[in-house]
Amino acid sequence: MKKICWLAVMVLLLCSGTNTYAGTAPDSLLPVRGFCIAAPKVSELEAFLTFIRKELAPNKVNTLVLRVDYNYQYTSHPELRDAGALSREDVARLVKECRQQNIRIIPQVNLLGHQSWDNTTLNLLRVYPEFDETPEVKMPATYKWPNPEGLYCKSYCPLHPGVHKIVFALMDEICDAFETDAFHAGMDEVFYIGNDKCPRCGGKDKAELFAGEVWAIRNHLAQKNRELWMWGDRLLDGKTTGLGMWEASMNNTHRAIDMIPRDVVICDWHYERPDKTPVYFAMKGLRVITCPWRMPDNAVVQAQDMMQFRKTATREMKPNYLGMMQTVWSGAGSFMDEYYGRKNKMNAMEKDTVHTSSKCFRALFAEINKAR
């Protein structure tokens, strides 16, 4: 009888050993279980609401970051609207659906960098060209990388006296529309900052300029008790770490990590390798979320790492490890086509049919939900 009991105990231990987090509540396991995607077009709204209800909610996603940019009918600056942008009523439907599914919704408008894409100047600099940090760099008829001007995306000048009046109005309006207590400012891949030819920024420390813009945005949001979220790549030293110019900084903005407020939430994206930079951010006193994109195996490792960081952290450090967020760099409609197998061709940014954002999403949340 004793042998049978001990055998039963051993079987139970072996089975339970495959999941050290079994029975852990989702919010304790990973406080943030996020999904980031472009806000849907009006024609995609109905399908996206269904996607929230039938896919995000059952997977225990509790945070939705929507990259809105100019896909909203701004009344403060209607000249910056995209054609056919979402209305206030459309946004209200998104807010209502997320509230019913217990999902926190956070809008994003790219600030500082990403003011152009490919050979197109985006709305802010197209309408207000005086805000351009590098007006001498002209947009090419056909865009290629690399290029002699080092043009990836344009930036606005953070020291232009008129720029914050415009962008703060957009921030206030979009946060009000989404009834949110947080705003994502982007601020990734800023290659143009502190341009020597800029009459305001020339000769200034790039880290101080970057940190100054973070403070300006954060302080404006704080007036209404709103939280700033941002990408973390410009706060990492691309040379020392070997992470390079895309997932980290090669123009000295990385020193801004010691200059920015500690209540900013860092979205730490790494797509080609599951680098363990969340530890660096957390040790700097910043809350951090790990963000995969298209490589399922990497996403699984990153989720395991984040759960292990939280499990083994000190009491002081554990709250800095917030969780995971799947990022999608195609439109909502394109992603849903891929997700449901309706897609005839891959997104241009996805290199094969194995490494896609939809497969990454499935793998990430399968790992998270398996661990519960």
From TrEMBL:
Catalytic activity field: Hydrolysis of terminal non-reducing N-acetyl-D-hexosamine residues in N-acetyl-beta-D-hexosaminides
EC number(s) given by UniProt: 3.2.1.52
Family annotation (InterPro entries): Beta_hexosaminidase_sua/sub (IPR025705), GH (IPR017853), Glyco_hydro_20_cat (IPR015883)
Keywords carried by this UniProt record: Hydrolase, Signal
Domain Glycoside hydrolase family 20 catalytic as annotated: residue spans: 80-330
Pfam families in alphabetical order: Glyco_hydro_20 (PF00728)
Keyword Signal included in the entry's annotation: yes
Transferase as UniProt keyword: no
Coiled-coil features, chain-numbered ranges: none
Enzyme class: hydrolase
Record-linked SUPFAM superfamilies: (Trans)glycosidases
Signal sequence coordinates: 1-22
Domain of life: Bacteria
Family membership noted in the UniProt record: Belongs to the glycosyl hydrolase 20 family.
Name of the protein described by the UniProt record: beta-N-acetylhexosaminidase
Species of the source: Chitinophaga defluvii
